[in-house]
Sequence to fold (302 residues):
Amino acid sequence: MSAATTRSRTPDRLCAEAVDLAREAAEEAAAPGVVGEHVSAIAEGDRVVTHFFECKDPAYRGWRWAVTVTRASRAKNVTLDETVLLPGSDALLAPEWVPWSERLRPGDLGPGDLLPTDAEDLRLEPGYSGEDAPPPNSVVSAEMAELVEAEDADVTDRTVVPARGSIADVAEELGMRRARVLSRYGLHTAADRWDEAFGAKTPMAQAAPASCVSCGFLVKIGGSLGQAFGVCANEFGPADGHLVSLSYGCGGHSEAAVMPKPLRPAPPVLDSMAADEFPLRPAADTGSVPTADLPAADLGHS
Fold:
């Protein structure tokens, strides 16, 4: 160990005795009554000492006022270097700063918000158009530049077309013209995330009578993810409108239970619901005396 290192660990006597000077500096920087007792003094280097004072501010519990003093070589006057408020071992500190890209959670994106993606995002990879050359129908492509020059020269022969123009048109019609698409890593992370919400290990799937792969309410999706996921279309199910794993399931399975037909009551033995007819006059063919030969008074008419 060198002599300089030994001297730096031993506080300078004059700087260590300048407690009053350090307190005045701390009280000048802090509010009245906030600076407490002198805690300690440590050597920061040759003729450089930092004095620590207790902080009585309730908002900074466990913090300390640190006042650094120093003096020049062979000088007897101690001067002030800096005054700061530093946290102690039991101080209440704010959590470590985390970049927004790591703090972002599903559902944080609101209307009007923009979520930029990193150029080296592992979830994405170059798509059809790629990043090496612009699409053929782009204004900066070589083929389109030739066409613009031909139009400026008033050339009547307009048979010059972009070399890949037809491929670009077909790709655009098929929905393939995207600068970047999901990489294998992006597909796997999405599948893990969806399987965690609506997968086979959820309590709902564990208690389901059958899985979604045999459910009539499952709407299949295309692509490689369609081999493991689909969309639930059961409005009474817990995953209606969500991507569900084919191994997921719930009590709303289309074939789990068939609603029985409503029971029809048996016909009554005695029909008490029909009305009985009571004729006012006897039928013509039921009596032995013809009604035409009787006078009207005998029939009870006046």
About this structure: The CA atoms of residues 199 and 277 lie 69 Å apart.
